[in-house]
């Protein structure tokens, strides 16, 4: 690593992270075991950050990335110096804390996991994120001094930040207690005294201060207390993690630290864990999974109800809303088959309301999309990257309905006052609908398919593929609160730029779902990370 290329700010940071002193920069005692090897490469961390993190956290880590406006909770502003998930008594994260957050992601937010990255890459990312935090805090201090008509040399500001960013002693998590009636009794009593005012007496987050939207982060952005019963816990649902959240709080958020005695903390953690429904945390965790594509002897089925789908292994894929809400589509079960010529994907998800209308100004359709990439290292799941397009098949419930009979406002409001001129001059109807007159594919007079083939090369670039029509088709049905949709396409590329698929190929697959009941549209959606797609020979 060329240290001279980093500038004095980064050199100072490296000095803090590698202090060969009796009092380590990582707290009392020796440096963590993961730092026994040579320091990670900060330049490698910069490259990884620009590729995977800057779109949300911003180029300088100030939560002002291109996609930041889509996210709630907002991306972390590293310049604040506050990190939510810490294991230290002073609330400063250790390298292990930051790496654990990157590896796991943050359930309850749009922060995805990066557990598929190599360990040395995660270490490099951690080093660069800490560098951004230090640089941001130094700049904030200098600017604050200027606003106060005071003088604070950068070297003094850096010394203050360097001292501030030294992690303190680790929190003693102790041993978990048995969830017997006595422990639950003691834990619930402590919960009602210290937690219920925000999280509600039953742990569902129904406390008035939470429902009214009064809870705010230090930066003024809104926050909500966790509903423990749905199992979405940002730091994990283990005894150790719950104890750390109780003792350290969530720095920068309304969740405060506490000064309970160790036995009290253990009882409280045991009670909180008793509120979490079994299996809930596992359903919400984002992990890269493998979707096997079984080869069938006959033609692949395109009917969602075809019994041939029983031959395909179902894989649960967790989804995360970019604008978080508890009442959401948790995930999809996907299956895949191919016959050597055509590949098909079966998606199933729970949606209690059937929304298949786009005729009103506040009507939003249920929808789902799949993205395919054959790159060895695909671009960020959020719509590809420049010169690195992703192939997208978008299905809408309203389009599915229009395949039977195209509808217009007369179908939505059949008793409205009609325009006799348009009734008399039927050949002018298409010209009167301006979007249709200029060839907008969203305003087709007839829709042969419930799906549309799209391509994207980054945020804001999604659009129909040019050239010959894609071979993507889709058909969906809604029954008893569940959508089942089958997508299919030719394995050979049907148009320029469409990725070719072949038996034995390993590719990548990602998903997005829109729930019309909650007004989902455009960037307001639930998404997955990339998952491996393995086609059988």
Please provide the count of β strands.
Answer: 14
Average residue pLDDT: 86
Cα end-to-end separation:
44 Å
- Work out the count of structural domains: 4
Sheet with the most strands, sense and barrel status = 14 strands, mixed
Number of helices: 17
Can I get a quick summary?
This protein is of the alpha+beta class and 537 residues long. It is 28% helix and 15% strand. It has 4 domains: 3-164, Cytochrome Bc1 Complex, Chain D, domain 2, CATH 1.10.760; 181-278, Cytochrome c-like domain (Cytochrome Bc1 Complex, Chain D, domain 2); 288-406 and 449-535, Sandwich (Immunoglobulin-like); 407-445, no CATH class.
Characterise this structure:
The chain has 537 residues and is an alpha+beta fold. It folds into four domains: 3-164, Cytochrome Bc1 Complex, Chain D, domain 2, CATH 1.10.760; 181-278, Cytochrome c-like domain (Cytochrome Bc1 Complex, Chain D, domain 2, Orthogonal Bundle), CATH 1.10.760.10; 288-406 and 449-535, Immunoglobulin-like, CATH 2.60.40.1190; 407-445, no CATH class. The protein is 28% helix and 15% strand. It contains 17 helices and 14 strands. It has helices spanning 7-17, 42-52, 54-57, 95-104, 119-147, 154-164, 181-194, 196-199, 208-211, 239-248, 262-275, 280-284, 397-404, 409-412, 420-424, 429-432, 434-437, and strands spanning 290-295, 315-318, 320-321, 331-338, 342-350, 367-373, 390-396, 451-456, 463-464, 473-479, 482-490, 506-514, 526-527, 531-535. Strands 1, 2, 3, 4, 5, 6, 7, 8, 9, 10, 11, 12, 13 and 14 form a 14-stranded mixed beta sheet that branches. Helix 2 (42-52) crosses helix 5 (119-147) and helix 5 crosses helix 6 (154-164).
């Amino acid at each position: 690593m060329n240290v001279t290329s980093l500038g004095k700010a980064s050199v100072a940071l490296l000095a803090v992270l590698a202090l060969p002193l009796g009092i380590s920069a990582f707290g009392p005692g020796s440096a963590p075991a993961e730092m026994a090897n040579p320091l990670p490469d900060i330049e490698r961390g910069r490259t990884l950050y620009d590729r995977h993190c800057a779109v949300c956290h911003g180029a300088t880590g100030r939560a002002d990335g291109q996609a930041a406006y889509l996210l709630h909770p907002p991306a972390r502003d590293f310049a604040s110096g506050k990190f939510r998930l810490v294991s230290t008594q002073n609330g400063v994260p250790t390298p292990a804390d930051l790496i654990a957050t990157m590896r796991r992601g943050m359930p309850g937010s749009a922060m995805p996991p990066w557990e598929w990255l190599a360990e040395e890459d995660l270490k490099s990312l951690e080093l660069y994120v800490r560098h951004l935090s230090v640089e941001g805090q130094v700049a904030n201090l200098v600017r604050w001094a200027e606003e106060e008509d005071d003088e604070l040399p950068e070297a003094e500001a850096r010394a203050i930040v360097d001292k501030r960013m030294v992690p303190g002693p680790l929190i003693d998590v102790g041993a978990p207690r048995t969830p017997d009636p006595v422990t639950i009794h003691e834990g619930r009593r402590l919960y009602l005294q210290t937690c219920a005012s925000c999280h509600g007496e039953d742990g569902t987050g129904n406390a008035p201060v939470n429902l009214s939207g009064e809870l705010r982060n230090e930066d003024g952005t809104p926050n909500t207390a966790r509903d423990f019963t749905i199992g979405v816990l940002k730091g994990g649902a283990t005894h150790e993690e719950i104890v750390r959240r109780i003792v350290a709080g969530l720095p920068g958020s309304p969740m405060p630290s506490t000064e309970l005695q160790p036995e009290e903390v253990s009882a409280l953690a045991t009670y909180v864990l008793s509120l979490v429904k079994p299996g809930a945390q596992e359903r919400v965790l984002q992990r890269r999974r493998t979707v096997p594509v079984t080869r069938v002897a006959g033609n692949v089925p395109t009917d969602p109800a075809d019994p041939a789908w029983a031959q395909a292994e179902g894989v649960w894929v967790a989804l995360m809303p970019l604008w978080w809400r508890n009442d959401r589509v948790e995930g999809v079960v996907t299956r895949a088959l191919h016959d050597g010529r055509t590949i098909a994907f079966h998606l199933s998800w729970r949606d209690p309301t059937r929304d298949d209308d786009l005729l009103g100004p506040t009507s939003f359709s249920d929808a789902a999309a799949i993205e395919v990439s054959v790159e060895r290292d695909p671009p960020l799941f959020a719509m590809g990257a420049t010169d690195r397009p992703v192939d997208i098949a978008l299905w809408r419930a309203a389009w599915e309905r229009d395949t039977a009979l195209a509808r217009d406002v007369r179908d939505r409001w059949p008793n409205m006052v009609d325009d006799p001129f348009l009734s008399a001059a039927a050949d002018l109807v298409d010209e009167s609908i301006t979007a249709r007159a200029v060839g907008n594919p969203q305003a087709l007079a007839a829709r042969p398919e419930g799906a549309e083939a799209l391509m994207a090369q980054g945020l804001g670039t999604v659009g129909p593929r040019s050239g010959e029509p894609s071979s993507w088709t889709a058909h969906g049905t809604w029954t008893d609160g569940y959508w089942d949709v089958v997508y299919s396409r030719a394995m050979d590329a049907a148009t320029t730029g469409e990725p070719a698929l072949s038996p034995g190929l390993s590719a990548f697959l990602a998903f997005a779902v829109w729930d019309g009941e909650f007004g989902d549209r455009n960037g307001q959606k639930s998404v997955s990370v990339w998952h491996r797609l393995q086609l059988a020979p």
